[in-house]
TrEMBL record:
Pfam families per record: AMP-binding
Domain AMP-dependent synthetase/ligase residue range list: 27-68
Protein name per Swiss-Prot or TrEMBL: AMP-binding protein
Biological process according to GO: amino acid activation for nonribosomal peptide biosynthetic process; secondary metabolite biosynthetic process
Domain of life: Bacteria
GO molecular function: phosphopantetheine binding
PROSITE patterns with a match to the protein in the record: AMP_BINDING (PS00455)
Any one annotated GO CC term: cytosol
Amino acid sequence: LREVLPIPAAIECLELDEQALVGYSDANPNIEVAPQNLAYVIYTSGSTGKPKGTLLPHQNVVRLFAATQGWFRFD
């Protein structure tokens, strides 16, 4: 993939082939998530100054889905 992408020389790339991954588990890790844990980051455009990121916890995501369930009918 690296050979077909236009990656500038100044950008360092980490390449892992299958041999480098031997010995690592392919099972999903068992991770407990709390409501206050980070779910995602929304980055601003920086139109009013320096670009910033807004950190959104899982509790906000759950609240969003609950508030819009009537519109979108999430399953």
